[in-house]
Amino acid sequence: MLNLILFGPPGSGKGTQAANLIEKYGLLHISTGDLFRSEIGKKTPLGIKAQEFMSRGELVPDEITIGMLQNKVNANPDVSGIIFDGFPRTISQARALDDFLSERGTAVTILVALDVPDDELVKRILLRGKTSGRNDDNDESIIRNRIKVYEEETAPIFDYYSEYGKSRKVGGVGSVDSIFENIASHIDALC
Ligand code: ADP
Fold it and tell me: Can you give the residue ranges of every domain in the chain?
């Protein structure tokens, strides 16, 4: 299995690149943000709980997030690989993912991080907010909080997978196609 963690701060282009990667490699795309938004749309108890945290730009607690992710993976047993988008976002989520994949006889293949300066992130997210319908995309202080949470809680995951030689960094500013080619070259070098 090709298990790719698509990594990077909010607004770095993970969703855009995931769409291209699905096409080229035939992978299942799991975005925890999309899963939460779907639960919120259906007004499930999980969605109502998650919304509380998301609307403040905070992380949803690990025990909710990890269970939801595992259900999604278990519901798709026959895939040739998975793009994890927005997961893991904490070291404990990374450990849980490693244990979970290892129980299934597989592992994280590679983590690719998209590198984009903070001011560019804020600009992109505010622009996206005009059409995304996402409340957390419309308020600069919430966006800045999401970036701060990323730096504090999520960024260390890059070093965590570096220890296993699995982390790669790609510039996330430029044309969508050229960024995609850089990501693909890292994947192709491994597979
Ligand atoms: P973005 O990366 O652009 O901020 P996402 O759609 O990935 O957007 O996530 C939106 C929100 O969903 C996050 O700010 C957070 O509140 C919540 N979320 C998504 N994934 C996770 C996760 N793995 N752990 C905790 N919270 C998460």
Answer: 2-183
